[in-house]
Amino acid sequence: MPKSIHKYTNGEVTIVWKPDVCIHSTLCWKGLKEVFNPKLRPWIEPAGSTTEKIIEQISKCPSGALTYYMNNDEMPEQ
Length: 78
Ligand code: SF4
What we know:
Elements: E1 6-9, E2 13-17, H1 27-31, H2 51-58, E3 66-70
Antiparallel strand pairs: 1-2, 2-3
Bound molecules: iron/sulfur cluster.
The site of iron/sulfur cluster (SF4) has 12 residues, from α1.
């Protein structure tokens, strides 16, 4: 079980970040730096891009450290 879970939302989608699970592949911030920028605090800026692009990028995370759910879903984190 991950020790900590952080959530960031743009109102439509919620990005779920589990730092303990991250394997630092760098895919997220190399792929979508407008949203995932390790130089910023917090490092995830959900308003930085479209929901579609955020979901596309999260789907490429190889470790499962990044997941998401739509805010209108009844069952989170599918
Ligand atoms: S893509 Fe996933 S595993 Fe890679 S740095 Fe981002 S959160 Fe970590």
